[in-house]
Structure formats: C-alpha cells, structure tokens
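hey so i finaly got around to running the thing on DUF6046 domain-containing protein from Flavobacterium geliluteum. pasting the sequence first so u can double check i didnt mess up the copy paste, my clipboard has been acting weird all day
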Amino acid sequence: MENKEILFASLVGSKVVEQIPRFSAIQNELAKHVLPPIPFLPLRNQDKIKKASVLGFEDSWWLKDSAPKEDQQFFPLSFSLTPNGQKYLLPYETMISINGKNQVVKRSVAKGNKIPGKIKERWSQDDYDITITGVLLGDYEIGTVENCYPISDFRKLKSFLTAPQAVYVFCEPLQLLGINKIVIEDFSFPFTKGENVQAYEIKAVSDFDYALILKLNEV
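ok and heres what it spat out for the 3d tokens, dont ask me to read them lol
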C-alpha cells in the first residue's frame, strides 16, 4: 500500500493497516501534525435565502388587506342599472335582512258568537322590505383623506343609491325569493370609527314587473 492509502485507511479505522509494519510509525507522525479537513460529504444543500424586499413605512404597517373576491364571499351582492349591464360588486360582504308580509282584506259580519274572528275575503303578497348593511374600506388605515377614505367605492355606491330608477340586484337569497330589482327608499352613512372605514345602510323594497291586463287564470 502507498503512503496515501495507508493514511486514509488509518483515518477510517481499517483493520488492514494494523498489519502493516509502518503503521505505528505513521500513527506517531500523524500525532505531530494537524491534517487538513477531508470532504467526506461533498454534497451541500443550496441556500434558499431570498433578499428582503424594501417596503415603505405605510406599505408595511398601514396598508389594509385586499378586498375578498366574489368567489371568496358566501353571499356576494352586486348592483347594476341594466339587466345585463356592468355589475358593481360591493367590496365586502354585506348583511341582508328581508321582511315580507301579506295584504289581507278582512270583513266583520254578523255570524253570532260561536265562530270568532273576521272573514278573510282576499289576500295578496306585499313588497319585501330589504335592509342592506355594509362597510367600505380605504387603502390605508392612517394618512390623508385621499389615501385613507374609500372615495372611489363611495362614489360608485352613491351612483346607484341616487339613480332615479329601479336597481338590479344579484344575490342568492334575493334570487330565491324572485327578487331581481329593488327600489331604494332610504340610505345613510353613519359615523364610523376609523379613518379608512365608512359604514352604510340601505333600505329598499322589492320591485316586480306587472301587467295591467290579466287573464282570468292569472288572477
């Protein structure tokens, strides 16, 4: 065996080197020197450290979370001024309350005291009362009015609230009741805590298409 082979065998603990006469001499010589490191494991994992991006103070601290998309909301609500026109999705999911009632014509007749109550002659379904409560959020939590207050969404919502016509609505609970259009009667923007927060409340009634002339089987 050559000197390099004897050296390597002694380092890994081979029994073969013990039979070599020069082993003791080499071992004594190794004790006098510090050997260079031997790369037993040449493979090395690659570093995956990414360079940190430089963010401004407002970007990292005061930037609000992005608004959820339509497929991320449970009951998304959209407005439109035409049946197939451009829709405006309310940016954050709203709370919708729906109240319905029947219009019943009652008449009191002389029928003795054995049968209580009034005679119900005719009834029809009244409009649905709809209350929509939601919130608008600006881009930044703290800053100037232009950066914080949700001016763009406020103007878009205002265009529907003040439109002199029925507003088409697209929302699953309303669709289940056959409500495709609403007439907005009242709306408010109450004081809301937070520079970039603006709450709103909309009160509306359902609106259905009707015909002035009805067939007998449609009455």
